[in-house]
Design goal:
alpha/beta; Spo0b-associated Gtp-binding Protein, Chain: A; GMP Synthetase, Chain A, domain 3; 3 domains; 6-stranded mixed beta sheet; 5-stranded mixed beta sheet; 11 helices; elongated; magnesium; metal-binding; cytoplasm; nucleotide-binding; GTP1-OBG_CS
Length: about 500
């Protein structure tokens, strides 16, 4: 038996970008052929795409991890690496994507709707793309960026026009089975239905002259497990109340043949309306669906084929008229009143669609960055005394792209940070030479006197003479000097002992 899963947590990881290549063209009679290292390929994205043939999130329940393809590294002779393969994951229509904090990221409605769950990392530039007037033959290349990692929550909210609500064993699944071609599981015990059942209903014009227009087609779904306290987690209601959010019409199915003495149709409807009102705050962030309390309602008195149920319907119908909603008597067994009910539901759905037309696809909104807006921020480091932390998408990306075992690559990073204005901001905040500066996952000692731009002297490939020109004594030098002083002190102590023995 297939399982219905409507809420899952998935872990998506995009592909890493390929590293750039550091290469020099070598050919006979051309000893200085110039740099020819190609760029690395972009990492593959992970995309979620609505597929009309998918109706559950079951696949993600068993396989919650997904990863895009990695980009290939660049090669010599200006050959760029291949891009990583994108991974597309099919989701059912009506899937809502949320982040770990519960914020809605996307509302997936309509076949083909696509959402980039994780973006692939950029490929690193090869040394051919890094060549400039200051660096005519760079001896380094940029590393590829790691792919984006995200943890997402997928919630399925059924795309149904009519939602049937009612107490367990009210006959909701039976109505779906006789109004449509759906074949849900039906039994005579509560909580038989453990998942919403969807069916397609066609209200065709008949000989009685109900309507003269074309056939009305709408979808209908029963929502299981609604009992008092469902909005607080009792029963199954908390798991399936979300399936009512997209419904154009809500139909209260009342069991007129119930044997429970403490229940009556009026109290049943009032109890379910209280649960729907309690669930209302969860709908505030939804996308243009309107208030659930404003959806059209209809009351269905079910099981009137039983004599006692028909008598109860005659008694309670005057009391139910105070709600102001249309009332229909039906029987899923004898099919009494089903035709009138189908046309009434079709009319309400049609009116709702006309009053709430579907929104057209919106164009992406591009908000350019202000001219005076900084690309980074510099703040005092709360964990290191006298240190600073630089935050910003560009500096952090440059850190990830740098080969720190290559002095020339480190010098290129210093040039980029200086042109961005990081050094000027550090000076303004009172940073001193040797102050620890953290960018991303890397902490280094700041050297404010490093020249930039065209002042860079030409040295060997992979080296940068600026990194050796510093008056500040490093940790290795201090350790060597301390060792030398200790040895010199021990030597003088030995001479003092020898002079005392001579006396």
């Amino acid at each position: 038996m297939s399982r219905f899963v409507d809420r899952v947590t998935i872990h998506v990881t995009a592909g890493n970008g390929g590293h750039g290549c550091s290469s020099v063209h070598r050919e006979k009679f051309k000893p200085l052929g110039g740099p020819d290292g190609g760029n690395g390929g972009r990492g593959g994205d992970v995309r979620l795409v609505v597929d009309s043939q998918v109706h559950t999130l079951l696949d993600f329940h068993f396989r919650p991890h997904a990863r895009g393809g990695n980009g290939k590294p660049g090669q010599g002779d200006n050959r760029n690496g291949a891009q990583g393969e994108d991974l597309e994951l099919a989701v059912p229509d009506g899937t809502v994507i949320l982040d770990k904090q519960g914020r809605i990221l996307a509302d997936m409605v309509g076949a083909g709707t696509t959402f980039v769950a994780a973006q692939g990392g950029r490929g690193g530039l090869g040394n051919a793309a890094l060549a400039s007037k200051a660096r005519k033959a760079p001896g380094f290349a940029l590393l590829g960026e790691p792919g984006q990692e995200r943890e997402l929550v997928l919630e399925l909210k059924s795309v149904a026009d009519v939602g049937l609500v009612g107490f367990p064993s009210a006959g909701k699944s039976s109505l779906v089975s006789v109004l449509s071609a759906a074949k849900p599981k039906i039994a005579d015990y509560p909580f038989t239905t453990l998942a919403p059942n969807l069916g397609v209903v066609q209200a065709a014009p008949g000989r009685g002259g109900e309507r003269s227009s074309a056939i009305d087609t709408f979808t209908i779904a029963d929502v299981p497990g609604l009992i008092p306290g469902a909005s607080d987690g009792r029963g199954l209601g908390l798991d399936f109340l979300r399936h009512l959010e997209r419904c154009a019409v809500l139909a209260h199915v009342v069991d007129c043949a119930t044997l429970e003495s403490d229940r009556d149709p009026v109290s049943d409807i009032e109890a379910l309306e209280a649960e729907l009102a309690a669930y209302q705050p969860a709908l505030d962030a939804d996308h243009g669906l309107g208030d659930l309390a404003e959806r059209p309602r209809i009351i269905i008195l079910n099981k009137i084929d039983i004599p006692e149920a028909a008598e109860l319907a005659d008694i309670v119908e005057p009391d139910l008229e105070r709600f102001g909603w249309p009332i229909y008597r039906v029987s899923a067994v004898s099919h009494e009143g089903l035709r009138e009910l189908a046309f009434a539901l079709a009319k309400l759905v049609r009116e709702y669609r006309e009053a709430n037309p579907k929104e057209e696809a919106r164009r992406p909104i591009i908000r350019p960055r202000a001219v005076d807006e900084a690309d980074f921020t510099v703040e005092p480091d709360p964990q290191i005394d006298g240190g600073f932390v630089v935050r910003g998408s560009r500096p952090e990306r440059w850190i990830r792209q740098t080969q720190f075992d290559n002095d020339e690559a480190v010098g290129y990073l210093a040039d980029r940070l200086n042109r961005l204005g990081v050094e000027e901001e550090l000076v303004r905040l009172g940073a001193e030479a040797g102050a620890p500066v953290t960018i991303g996952d890397v902490t280094f000692d700041w050297e404010p006197t490093t020249p930039t731009g065209d002042d860079v002297p030409v040295t060997g490939r992979g080296t940068d003479i600026r990194l050796d020109r510093t008056d500040r004594i490093g940790a290795a030098e201090r350790k060597a000097a301390r060792k030398l002083r200790r040895e010199h002190h021990e030597e003088w102590d030995h001479l003092d002992v020898v002079e005392e023995d001579d006396e």
